[in-house]
Write a structure and sequence with these properties.
Blueprint lengths: L2 H10 L8 H8 L3 H13 L4 E4 L3 E4 L8 H5 L10 E5 L5 H10 L6 E5 L20 E8 L9 H18 L4 E4 L3 E4 L2 E12 L6 E11 L26 H17 L5 H10 L6 E5 L4 E9 L5 E5 L4 E4 L3 E3 L4
Parallel strand pairs: 3-4
Antiparallel strand pairs: 1-2, 4-5, 5-9, 6-7, 7-8, 8-9, 10-11, 10-14, 11-12, 12-13
Helix pairs in contact: 1-3, 2-3, 6-7, 6-8
Length: 324
């Protein structure tokens, strides 16, 4: 780690506390001049570090800058062993992680960014990923499941996002099958799971689980085309919200991932669904068909009944529902 990285970690673990330049230099084993240069570099990156003569340096408790050490301080359980790669901007966290996976990255490798220039959603759509308002995280998994069960990864992530949102806020989170998380009727999260398969065994070689969460509403609001449906977790600034949100999500997901497809997770997904019992539209390439959403089965597939009484179990695809 660089002097700047060590200093960042030290200040984040001592927020609101002034540390003298001499003490920092002693703790890090570097010169006072190296400390001063590292402070200036961090301030240039947006860290609200206060410098007061005869008192030293202090990182504000209100800081909300995404960083590896900032995330890691909140990780618990299995999540503490994750390998984190944190960036200000990437094209797509899923794309970056797929490149790492191709080079042999191990399960548990994570790519996090504060902004994506080419964020992707399901069905080839773009995913709006502005700077400083959302968090975008991709996790490398190597599950021992067949491709047909990939929905279990996405739905487990949806439950984990709901748990993270409710842990950090006073708001109730719900799920629209298969991969969208809503708060107060607005979408605050989208999930995209992509995979590489072993043709010989028919099993996953690896899966990349990508999750984008709107922590705050962008300045000026969301773009017109998504303004009616998009929302955010917080409506006012919350100290260290981004680092805490990512850590809470990873903690929750890995706890559930130990028993992927477990009955308790399926039951929780079903409980959080706001489409069950409602009329929905099943979207296909060439048609849109009204149906009633009846249930979520043991593999998180959606059971629907069409107007003529025919039932179908959907393992992929998309539905729409009129929100009131």
């Amino acid at each position: 780690m660089t002097v700047q990285s060590h200093l960042q970690q030290l200040l984040e673990s001592n927020k609101s506390t002034f540390l003298s330049g001499e003490e920092i230099a002693r703790r890090l084993g570097v010169s006072r001049n190296a400390v001063w240069k590292a402070i200036k570099a961090l301030q240039a990156e947006g860290y609200p570090i206060e410098a007061v003569p005869n008192k030293g340096y202090c990182l504000s408790a209100e800081s909300d800058v995404l960083s590896e050490s900032g995330i890691r301080q909140y990780l618990t359980g299995d999540a503490q062993t994750l390998t984190l790669h944190v960036y200000d901007t990437v094209t797509s966290t899923n794309l970056v992680l797929r490149e790492l996976a191709g080079k042999g990255a191990p399960e548990g490798t994570v790519v996090v960014a504060a902004r994506q220039t080419g964020g992707r959603g399901r069905m080839g759509r773009s995913f709006y990923s502005p700077e400083n308002t959302g968090v975008y995280v991709s996790l490398l998994l190597k599950p021992k499941i067949v491709p047909e069960d990939a929905t279990l990864i996405t739905t487990t992530a949806a439950v984990a996002v709901c748990e993270a949102v409710e842990l950090l806020s006073d708001r109730k989170a719900q799920i629209k099958w298969v991969n969208d998380v809503f708060v107060d009727g607005k979408k605050i999260c989208g999930i995209l799971t992509e995979g590489s398969f072993d043709m010989e065994s028919g099993m996953f070689e690896y899966a990349v689980l990508g999750t984008g969460i709107n922590v705050y509403t962008p300045l000026g609001g969301f773009p017109e085309e998504i303004r009616q449906v998009a929302g955010s977790v917080f409506t006012a600034p919350v100290p260290d919200a981004k680092n805490r949100m990512i850590a809470a999500y990873l903690n929750a997901f890995l706890a559930l991932y130990r028993n992927l497809g477990g009955k308790e997770t399926i039951a929780e997904y079903r409980r959080r669904s706001f489409v069950l019992g409602k009329m929905v539209t099943v979207l296909a390439v060439d048609r849109q068909t009204p149906a009633r959403a009846l249930d979520v089965d043991e593999k998180c597939r959606l059971v629907v009944e069409y107007e003529e009484g025919r039932r179908e179990t959907l393992s992929s695809g998309e539905i729409s529902i009129k929100l009131t």
